[in-house]
Give the backbone structure.
Amino acid sequence: MDFEWNRLKSDDCYVQRGFDFEAVIDVFRDPCRLVEADDRWDYGEDRFRLIGKLDEKCYVVIFTHRSNIIRIISARRANAREVRKYEKSSS
């Protein structure tokens, strides 16, 4: 899998949340990951919400596909509701 992202958004994520987009790439390899459409808005492209675990912590990554590349749009730690959803789907 190849990944790309906006460097400024990744740097901002690091400042605000303590990790950058590169740090969450491995959630895409989580065999129990949960992926669903992110259809909250019309973004002009298909976007997806991934919930996955990395080092025993759940993360949410918003991404899209551009050609054969996964473009990470945002990333954050999962909230309690999202953690429950992940745990329910992986059990």
Q: What stands out?
A: The longest strand covers residues 57-66.
